[in-house]
Amino acid sequence: MKGKSKIFMAGLAVVITAVWITVAAPGWFVDRSATAPKEVWNSQAPDFVLKDLEGGQFRLSDQRGKPVLLIFGTTWCPACREEIPRLKDIYARYAERGLVMVNINVRESQDKVTRYAGKNALPYRSLLDEKGTVSEKYGILGVPALILLDEAGMIVGGQRFIDPLLAKMFKEKKSANNLPI
Predict the structure, then answer these.
(1) β-strands 68-73, 57-59: how paired?
(2) Could you tell me if 113 and 84 lie in one domain?
(3) In DSSP terms, which residues pair with 157 in a beta bridge?
(4) Domains contained in the chain, number
(5) Which of 32, 51, 113, 170 has the maximum number of C-beta atoms within 10 A of its C-beta?
(6) How far apart are CA 15 and CA 159, in angstroms?
(7) Whether residues 162 and 128 fall in one domain
(8) Domain limits at 19?
């Protein structure tokens, strides 16, 4: 009976762990390289209009002429929180030189996002994609997902490639405009 009891307990532990992984900790297993599908790279970014936390509107097409970093995330995602220091660093390095950064909160209420943005002192604008329509347009499959647009509104990359792409983008700007890096 002891042997069967051990097997039963081991099986029960496996089931409990599987349920916990599926329900309680989905953010731990989100693909950190998630971004727009590669087939949309080097294509025109779909335009959208979203409300920000102050009730204003953000229209992507109004940003033409500036590079834009779209940050798709949620308030409950641990990997999204882990990205915040890196994103703040990107903002500090490039915002004054023209980079527009927006945090697009997927399927979350304004109250939750307002608390999250305040608690984390996000320096960039937070937008509300409450129904998930914009994330669907971009084919977002997991969060966090970063998508970089060039000045013409073309999708030039995402996630792991953001840092080198920004460095290249602003280095080219330096030689074209003679601005310091």
Answers:
(1) unpaired
(2) yes
(3) 148
(4) 2
(5) 113
(6) 33
(7) yes
(8) 1-28
Q: CB of 50 within 8 A of CB of 58?
A: yes
d(CA 13, CA 168): 50
Q: Cβ distance 71 to 104 under 8 Å? A: yes
Mean pLDDT to the nearest integer, 42-51: 93
Q: Are residues 108 and 133 in the same domain?
A: yes
H or E stretch including 110? helix 110-119
Q: Are residues 2 and 68 in the same domain?
A: no
pLDDT-above-90 percentage for the chain: 62
Question: How far is it, in rounded angstroms, from Cα 74 to Cα 34?
Answer: 14
What's the pLDDT band for 17 if we cut at 50, 70, 90? low
What confidence tens digit (pLDDT) does each residue in 74-90 have?
Answer: 999 999 999 999 999 99
114 lies in the same domain as 159: yes
pTM (2 d.p.)? 0.74
Q: Is there a single domain that holds both residue 65 and residue 1?
A: no
